[in-house]
Each structure stands twice: as structure tokens, then as C-alpha cells.
User: What shape does this take?
Amino acid sequence: MNSKKNTSQKEFWIYLHPYVYVSVKFSHAILYNTLNGFLLDYRNNPEMIRLLKKLNSDRNLYVIKIGEGSLTPGILQFIRKVRDSFSGDIMPVSYGETKPINFKPIPGVQYGYDDLISNGRGKRNLLARDSIRDYLDVLAVYINNECNQRCTFCSFVFRQCDHCHSSNGKREELSLDIIKRLMDEVKSGNVSNLKILGGDIFRYSQFPALVRLLDKSGLQKEYYIQGLNLKSNISKLKLLSGEKNLLNILEHSPFNFCELSGIIEECKGYGVKVKVMCLIETGRDLETIADFLERFPLYENDISLIPIFNGANIDFFENYVYLTRESIVDAKSTLKEIFSRSLINTNNFRRLSISCDGSVFSNMNLQKIGNINTTDIYSIVETELNYGSGWRKLRKNVVPCNRCPYNALCPSISNYEFVLKRYNLCQI
Ligand code: SF4
Ligand code: SF4
Assistant: This one.
């Protein structure tokens, strides 16, 4: 037996499967199997961090050679875990001296958003005018700000979720002509969801004409109305019937389910598809809704729950909203989702909001990026792509997430984080 063969018999290839995601940040490393959710988490374990760093390097592409003498108890345990979880394996080098070919997953995007935003002078050339239209998917349009209610939460809830909002200033509405022009502009684009919000949308001066115009657009539409404002406008409900319309009724605690179920039935009677968005501020709110659904399970698909931060319920957020390792594992993120989150903010990307004075936002918590009264919508999309900060608000760029290996596994930065002014709403 020659000496070369002896050496080969005592060496091994350790490899990871291509559907495994590895991230190493300082003294913290994780390995996550995107097929079955298996997660390994090593903190302050220099041996494992060195090993995962080596496996993850672009040079090694998830395959490293290791001598028999280097197979410490820690590394053997690691191999057992990756093998048992179908995340990787080990094989003797004697099976073949050539390094096995492996495909470490690497993010690839059609138009290279990172290139686009860092390319200085040439950036506009990267996108043909036609492809700009691919970058707008969801439009939230605040058609007016008129409302007779005086909700205490009016000034802050719309910054956290799709919710009506009435400013204290002068009464304003987006003119029907501007909305018509907007519909003409997006006609040949990729917009798949149009959200219509107010104020009280039923107080829009030409509401029936607006609904007719939007129906002609063929887009899927979601209308938003506070439950209090719906009661006085039941007669207008039939305007919103139709397969492509959904009415979202916004409800806050205390929930009156008897009244609510009556409204749901009435909407359905008019042929209006309806969803009740229950804004949740406490654990007690959750219990109330769970209790109602237990008694009336047929309403399960009609109700969605939206947590709301009211400035005094951080305990509720810690208990029910904060990310945990379990919630991240349960989310079973695919590689595509993980890589998307490392390049774009998936909550904001391809989405714009327009307020009733025409101002356009990539996120209602950020500065406006244009005005629809003076600029066409796709020029504003181009502005956001080239210079905006909403669509590329990434965990990898903010403290402390930039030092955390979970930063692409966690959901993109959400409105709650803008409002709470901290990015680590987690218990990790
Ligand atoms: S119903 Fe909506 S728009 Fe009116 S005051 Fe309440 S939150 Fe504001
Ligand atoms: S929220 Fe930030 S700090 Fe918390 S686990 Fe995710 S990336 Fe890490």
C-alpha cells in the first residue's frame, strides 16, 4: 500500500446539502435545513464556528476535507446531527481524491437590485422602462381624510398596518381625475392588489363613480372601513359587491361580536366579500376572539388578527409578537425567501402608498418619495429603486441585527419596528 493511499484512507469529506443555509456572525453561527426546519445554533463555541465558517466559505462551497485525527468529539457530534437531520454527511476521501462537486446556494436576482442601487452613474441603464413596471405590485391609496369619528388610535395605527387615518388638518381628497390617470398608468403594469382607504371612504365626494372606475380597471381591490363608519353606510354596501372586491372592516376592542356577525351576514347578503380585521392590543383581546371563534367556528375565515402597539402594551408584544427560535423554525423559510430577505425588504418591496394629498411613500413611516399630482407613478417607482430607503431596509444593515446570524431567517423589518424604534423584537 503506498503512502498516498494510506493518507487518503484517513481523510474524509464533510459536506452539507445545497438546501441547507449557514450563517456565521462573530461568535454565533447557525445551520438551518430549509426542507425540514432543523436548526443548529452555536454560540461561543469556537470549534463549531470555525468549522461552519470553513464549510460556508466561497472557496469550500459546503465541502471540506478533514483528517481522522481532527475528528474531535464535538465534530463527530456535529456530523451525527447533520446526518440524522438529512442536512449533510461525511464520506472517506478514498472514494475519490477529487473534491466532490457541491452547489452551495447563492442568491441570484433577475435585475440585481444590489447592483442597481450601488451602480452610481449607470444605474438607470440597468432597467429598461418596461421592466420598471414589474416593480409595482401593491398600491395603497388614501382617497380622502374626512371622518366623523374621533378615535384615539387614529394618529398611529395606520403606521403599523393598513388602516384608515384622518389628519387634523384641512379636509382633502384625491381627485377622481388623478385616480383615473393612475389607473391608466398601471393598466399595462403588474399591479395585483389595489387598497382603497380613507378617512371614511363612503364620504368620498364621488364614491359611486370611483367604484365604477376601479371596477373597470379589472384589478383585485380591497376597501377599508372602520366598523363605526360602516353602520351609517350599509345602504352603500351593494356598490362593493363582485368577485374582485373585498371589504376589510376594522374593529377595535371592546369587540361586539353579536353586532359584528350581524354585519358580516349583511355584507354577504349584498354579495360583498368581507374580512373583519380585529386590532389586538392585549392578551385579553386574543382570549375574547378565541372564545368567540370556539362558539362560532364558521366565522374563522372571516376574521384576521392584527397586533397593535399602543405605547403601553409592550408586555403583550413580548409575549405574543416577539420572534422566538421556535417561531422562526415553524415559519419553514425556503432558500428563496431567505435570499429575498437578504436583498430586499419583503414587506415593503413593490409596494407604494399614496396619501390623499398625492404624496407617495414606500412606507408610511418614512419620508415621501414623490407626489402623484405632479409625477407619474413609474417615475416614482424608479426613484425608490434608485434612491429610496424603504424597499431596501434590511436587517443586515441595522444594529443589532447586522451582528446576528438570524438576520435573513427573520422576517423583514416591519412597521412595528419603525414605530417601536428598535429592530430586535425577538427573544433570541
Ligand atoms: S374611523 Fe379611522 S379615520 Fe376615522 S377617526 Fe377612527 S381611525 Fe381615524
Ligand atoms: S430580530 Fe434581529 S437580533 Fe433578533 S433574531 Fe432576528 S436578526 Fe437577530
